[in-house]
Design a protein that fits this description.
The complex is a heterotrimer of chains A (285), B (282) and C (277).
Chain A: E1 7-18, E2 23-35, E3 40-44, H1 51-58, E4 66-71, E5 74-75, H2 79-83, E6 85-88, H3 100-110, H4 118-128, H5 144-156, E7 162-166, H6 174-189, E8 193-197, H7 201-207, E9 210-215, E10 218-224, H8 225-229, H9 244-256, H10 271-278
Parallel strand pairs in A: 3-8, 3-9, 6-7, 7-8
Antiparallel strand pairs in A: 1-2, 1-4, 4-5, 9-10
Chain B: H1 5-31, H2 37-40, H3 49-53, H4 57-74, H5 78-91, H6 96-117, H7 126-150, H8 155-167, H9 172-184, H10 192-202, H11 206-219, H12 229-241, H13 254-258
Chain C: H1 3-20, H2 23-38, H3 51-84, H4 87-92, H5 98-141, H6 151-178, H7 182-207, H8 214-225, H9 235-240, H10 249-273
Helix pairs in contact in C: 1-5, 2-3, 2-5, 3-5, 3-6, 3-7, 5-6, 5-10, 6-7, 6-10, 7-8
Classes of the chains: A alpha/beta (285), B mainly alpha (282), C mainly alpha (277).
Chain lengths: 285, 282, 277
């Protein structure tokens, strides 16, 4: 069943009433969005732009003022829709007295996994999240990165078609963030739809197929990552052993064809790439 | 209207449940001692609230009583003492102790406190003294009446009320009535029937006293383990004084024939002396 | 088993585990137990009641007082812990209805209070049973009837207290479902319980014959909207004088208690339905 988007949002508006006078604060303003199935979709924007509110409305945790939302063709905010959705909230907090395995098992039961299949589902989710070894420890002893990964495990334990991740890498070190990135990629490989809300733009760029950018409650851009980032009127050429004479010759040759050399700089690695190169093999523990 | 509809629905739901609870309460209240709301209102702020709410009622009543007792010892705060004593009664209305002691305190002591407050026995005229003392006696007796109703006609409480009626109000007929009710109640004190008859006798209602005492002896006292020989002796004395023909008297009991003196009859431990000084038929 | 009910039970299980670990619960639990156990020692303070009545009153008083405090504070605490720590966000994003979440919270909290009531009632039964046996021996020596002490009545009284606490929990959940803060829920919940505990005063007023009028009609409506929590306080009567309870009373009390719980939970679910998490 591949017909229709994983999430369809049409003309969504959400107003919050503030104070005794009931002043309106518009958090989401006439948002229309479609998240295609089987892709990793990045939802970006500055703090307070309405991303989290949009996700909460999609999950039925917040009631919209107006608009229509559906998940996998089902009306949003229904149990049936949520049964096919997994959610990792921002800065997740779980009951500290449970072990990681108990938490995921508990969520499996709540998510409707048949009793006979719970243990297998829990083991698979823990494995995918890289938490098998630490599953026996109490959640209260987990580091931030481990909390995010156990949160991921509870979100995917019932094998949902759609996974919504709200800031899954917030507060996590680059190695942990990369691990989460790999988990997201493996979910895409399994044909899941992933909605990713993140401030780590580098990671979003790496793992997302499509992105949408929101500002002040409105959608300001939406499209495939390659399409929206590529500047088709500019080109980058990487040259080795460039001498001043070679540069002058190249400029002359380009001018003969009506082209112009814009800038000459040295290529840079990102700090994240450098960090990951230097700190290898280190995992949260 | 659409926004109001759920609230109207919930109001109807709660009213329905409230009606069900009312039916439940109508039954429950018959088993619960009725708390005297009026008596408690002034004391609710003094720790009594907990008792009114339903917990520790006996304990709160006890501590309320202790507080009243502290005031009683000072003998200066009559209103406070009475208020707390009434609160204790209201909190635990099935306790004879509170009703009896509160009633006796009001009837026996408070009149004297009042006279002292007005300047003492030397200053207050005798008729005013009598008026005050009788007023408080009546007030104490009223409280004991409430207690009698709350305790299901406690025999000991009725006997104490009889004593107040006799000694403070000098109302022998009323006293006899209390003693009679006491004698007819469960666990009646051994002297109640005798004193009921004696006080009626002293009131001049001699035949009535004998008839009731005789009927009560036949119906109740005779069935006691020792056969109530002292009461039978009293009845024989009454028959003598009333000069009843032999046939109108109580039939001779077998053990009377065996031991005509009666006083050595079974019940050697039964004393013929009244429990309270000075009370007897003659 | 119905899937929705199974989900309720999972929420209840977690709520129970969370509640049982709370220091507040342990503190009140110990306090109640000490109170019941000390009732035998402090009966010397007693005036004119039977000793057993005093012990029963102490025990049921402890159940009533600490149970009520637990019922109000723990319910609000367990509810707001989910909201404030945002665990509710994770749970409600699953195929779990909000009504199921509330029913689960109710069952978990009620179960904890059930443990509280059962243990304290068992301690009370031991205290009363032991003293009743001693008093019965004394009564035989003095040729008096043995004191009445119906331990089955005590079990029924404990059940009634548990039912009352169930109404308290459901009531506080209703308040919490609409409240914004824990403190507000506790204060309003406690006031509502207090009003419910005193409801019988207006109920009594209405049972007395009087002329109909607007004031009486308003009183009637207000009285019937408030729960009557006093009807569950049959403790010492059931234990010490069970014959004073009119026949057929208990089914009415149980039916009324369960109806209150159902009505409050329905109201709580309605209020929670549109709450933004």
């Amino acid at each position: 069943m591949t017909a229709g988007p994983a999430i369809s949002v049409r003309n969504l508006t959400k107003d919050f009433r503030i104070g005794l006078k009931g002043l309106k604060l518009r958090a989401v303003d006439d948002l229309t969005l479609a998240v295609p199935r089987g892709q990793v979709f990045g939802l970006l924007g500055p703090n307070g732009c309405g991303k989290s509110t949009t996700l909460k409305i999609v999950l039925g945790l917040v009631t919209p003022t107006s608009g229509e939302i559906s998940i996998l063709g089902l009306p949003s905010a229904t149990s049936a829709a949520r049964a096919r959705t997994g959610f990792l909230p921002e800065a997740p907090y779980f009951h500290k007295f449970l072990s990681g395995r108990e938490l995921v098992r508990y969520c499996a039961h709540l998510s409707g996994v048949p009793s006979g299949k719970v243990e297998a589902a829990v083991a698979e989710a823990l494995e995918l999240a890289g938490m098998t070894e630490a599953a026996g420890r109490l959640v209260g002893t987990y580091s931030k990165g481990m909390l995010q990964r156990i949160g991921l495990a509870q979100a995917i334990v019932h094998d949902p078609e759609l996974v919504i991740l709200d800031e899954p890498t917030a507060g996590v070190d680059p190695v942990g963030a990369a691990a989460i990135g790999r988990i997201i990629e493996s979910m895409r490989a399994r044909g899941k739809t992933v909605v990713l809300c993140s401030h780590l733009l580098g990671q979003v760029e790496q793992v997302c197929d499509r992105v949408a950018i929101m500002d002040k409650g409105r959608l300001v851009l939406e499209g495939a990552v390659a399409d929206v980032l590529e500047r088709r009127d500019r080109h980058t050429v990487t040259i080795e052993a460039l001498t001043p004479a070679a540069l002058a010759a190249a400029e002359t040759a380009l001018a003969a064809h009506g082209a112009r050399l814009g800038a000459v700089t040295h290529p840079r690695r990102s700090l994240e790439e450098l960090f990951r190169e230097l700190v290898t093999g280190s995992r949260d523990a | 209207m659409r926004r109001l509809a759920p609230w109207l629905l919930f109001s109807a739901l709660f009213l329905g449940v409230g009606l069900l609870a009312e039916q439940s309460w109508r039954r429950v209240r018959l088993g619960l001692p009725e708390i005297g709301r009026r008596q408690l209102e002034p004391t609710v702020g003094q720790g009594v609230l907990l008792g009114v709410l339903g917990g520790f009622r006996t304990v709160v009543a006890d501590f309320t009583w202790i507080r009243s007792y502290v005031l009683w010892e000072k003998k200066t705060d009559r209103a406070g003492t009475e208020l707390l004593m009434r609160a204790a009664c209201a909190l635990d209305p099935r306790s004879r102790f509170f009703w009896e002691n509160a009633g006796l305190t009001i009837a026996n002591d408070m009149g004297h406190w009042e006279i002292r407050r007005r300047g003492g026995y030397a200053k207050v005229p005798k008729d005013i003294q009598d008026h005050v003392l009788r007023g408080y006696a009546r007030r104490g007796l009223d409280l004991m009446d409430e207690g009698v109703a709350s305790t299901g006609g406690n025999a000991a409480l009725l006997a104490s009320a009889a004593l107040v009626a006799e000694l403070q109000l000098k109302d022998l007929a009323l006293s006899a009535d209390y003693y009679r009710r006491s004698a007819e109640a469960r666990h009646a004190p051994w002297f109640a029937a005798r004193f009921a008859a004696a006080n009626l006798w002293k009131e001049g209602r001699r035949r009535e006293a004998y008839d009731w005492y005789r009927a009560h002896w036949l119906k109740t006292l005779r069935l006691e383990e020792d056969g109530a020989p002292d009461d039978l002796k009293e009845l024989r004395d009454m028959e003598q004084e009333l000069r009843l023909p032999l046939l109108a008297r109580l039939p001779l009991q077998p053990w009377e024939v065996a031991q005509p003196g009666l006083s050595t009859k079974p019940g050697d431990n039964v004393t013929t002396k009244p429990p309270v000084g000075g009370q007897s038929r003659k | 088993m119905n899937a929705a009910f199974a989900r309720c039970l999972w929420i209840a299980r977690l709520t129970f585990l969370e509640a049982i670990r709370q220091r507040f619960f342990a503190f009140l639990f110990l306090l109640g137990a000490v109170l019941v156990l000390s009732s035998g020692a402090v009966r010397a303070f007693d005036f004119g009641h039977s000793e057993l009545k005093f012990i029963a009153d102490f025990g049921f008083g402890g159940l009533f007082l600490f149970g009520s405090i637990l019922g109000v504070v723990m319910t609000a605490q367990l509810f707001f812990a989910e909201i404030d720590n945002r665990t509710a966000l994770t749970l409600l994003a699953k195929p779990l209805g909000r009504g199921e979440f509330l029913v689960g919270k109710f069952l978990g909290t009620w179960a904890v209070l059930g443990v509280f009531v059962a243990v304290l009632a068992a301690l009370l039964a031991v205290m009363m049973g032991a003293r009743a046996a001693e008093l019965a021996e004394l009564a035989v020596e003095r040729r008096l009837p043995p004191p009445e002490c119906d331990l089955l009545g005590l079990a029924v009284a404990a059940l009634l207290q548990w039912l009352r606490l169930g109404v308290v929990v459901a009531l506080v959940l209703t308040v919490a479902a609409a409240a914004r803060t824990f403190l507000f829920a506790v204060v309003v919940g406690a006031l509502a319980v207090l009003a419910g505990q005193l409801q019988w005063l207006s109920q009594e007023l209405l049972l007395k014959p009087a002329e109909a009028g607007l004031g009486r009609a308003v009183l009637w409506v207000l009285t019937h909207l408030l729960p009557n929590l006093q009807q569950f306080n049959l403790g010492d009567v059931l234990v010490l004088a069970p014959t004073q309870v009119p026949a057929g009373t208990l089914p009415w009390v149980f039916a009324s208690g369960l109806a209150y719980i159902a009505a409050f939970l329905a109201c709580a679910a309605f209020l929670f339905r549109r709450r933004e998490i």
